[in-house]
Amino acid sequence: MSVHYFSPVLNPQALVEHPQLEPEVKRAILASWASDRYAVRSQPRLRKPPDLPQPVPVQDVLSALARLDRMDGSA
C-alpha cells in the first residue's frame, strides 16, 4: 500500500492528520510501517517503509497509531 497515491506523507504524524484518508486506511498504513519487515538492519528501532523518504523510529509509528485510536474513539 503506497501513500504516494494520495499525497506525499513525510512521517507518521502527518499521516494521522491527512484529511483525505479514512481512519481504517491510516491504521493499515501505520501497521504496515510498524512491521519488522521494514526494520533497518543495523538499527532495529528504526523503520524504513518505501513510502517514506527517510527512516523513522518505530516508536513514532506506534505513537501515531495510539493517537489515531484516541481520535477515532476506539482505544
Q: Which terms summarize this structure?
A:
3-stranded antiparallel β-sheet; 3 helices; 44% helix; alpha+beta
Mean pLDDT: 87
Strand composition percent: 5-15%
**If helices are DSSP runs of H or I spanning 4 or more residues, what is the number of helices?**
3
Number of strands: 3
Task: State the low-pLDDT regions, or none.
Answer: none
So what's the overall shape? Answer: globular
The string of secondary-structure elements, in order, is HHEEEH
Distance between the termini: 24 Å
Please compute the radius of gyration using only Cα atoms. 12 Å
Number of domains: 1
Largest sheet features: 3 strands, antiparallel
What structural category characterises the helix and strand content? alpha+beta
Helix content: 40-55%
Strand order of the largest sheet: 1-2-3
Explained architecture:
The chain is an alpha+beta fold and 75 residues long. It has one domain. The protein has three helices and three strands; from the N terminus they run H-H-E-E-E-H. It has helices at 12-17, 23-34, 58-72, and strands at 39-40, 43-47, 56-57. A three-stranded antiparallel sheet has the order 1-2-3. A hairpin with an 8-residue loop joins strand 2 and strand 3 (56-57). Helix 2 runs antiparallel to helix 3. It is globular.
What topology does this entry show?
Blueprint lengths: L11 H6 L5 H12 L4 E2 L2 E5 L8 E2 H15 L3
Antiparallel strand pairs: 1-2, 2-3
Summarize the structure.
The protein has 75 residues and is of the alpha+beta class.
